[in-house]
Amino acid sequence: xxxxxxxxxxxxxxxxxxxxxxxxxxxxxxxxxxxxxxxxxxxxxxxxxxxxxxxxxxxxxxxxxxxxxxxxxxxxxxxxxxxxxxxxxxxxxxxxxxxxxxxxxxxxxxxxxxxxxxxxxxxxxxxxxxxxxxxxxxxxxxxxxxxxxxxxxxxxxxxxxxxxxxxxxxxxxxxxxxxxxxxxxxxxxxxxxxxxxxxxxxxxxxxxxxxxxxxxxxxxxxxxxxxxxxxxxxxxxxxxxxxxxxxxxxxxxxxxxxxxx
DNA sequence: ATGCCTACATTCTGTAGA
Length: 261
What we know:
There is one protein chain. The chain is an alpha+beta fold. It has a single domain, classed as Endonuclease/exonuclease/phosphatase (Deoxyribonuclease I, Chain A, 4-Layer Sandwich). Helices cover 22% and strands 27% of the residues. It has a six-stranded mixed beta sheet with strand order 3-4-2-1-14-13. α3 packs parallel to α4 (175-186). The longest helix is centred in the middle third of the chain and has 20 residues, at 121-140. It starts with a strand and ends with a strand. The structure holds one DNA strand.
């Protein structure tokens, strides 16, 4: 089974790229972030025509996540638990039946947090990460395959950036951000890409500005984090960076894992 | 030090992203 995560930066602006990618890459489950659409505005029919089931958790203008899947999920949950006042659409979980049991797949869009000295934005990011950790700890107790896939807005290590010195005061790379990410790893979650390659640097995002793609000035911030039961089934990973060279690309590219499910 | 570029919502410009 092929499971992918991709921040598409606007599903309506990206529908041609998305359909091309679904035809070419053919993921069994695709986790999308930054759909920037309400549920009613999501281009559902084009995607369903390619044989995908569509589940969305959208909002007006920005954020928004989705799960596209060849099989219909048994259950779907919207929103990250832990704060009923949080109105930002950044989390959706699907439960899928597979041979021998279930796999849980979450599409998450972790807050950017910049500017890092903002009195609201960075604390919101850290609070969201604490809620994710609590959720992950709870789900871990189920002892099921679980994939926390998404745009984490976290550069885990210096070699995950072309030039880490550019990021030292940035919310994506601050020590507190990286420590929160490590707490997730310390629960037992495995970074799928790093579990399958020593290759570095590897990037999943290149800014639109200043010729970042042409200079390969990227960062690795899109991750598949696996519970032990999911990592036991991991075969390999890939970063499908060729889509960054397409016409009208997203600034992120798909990160995929191949599993023995 | 700042903008670079893009999407979106409402415009003839601002917010947000990373």
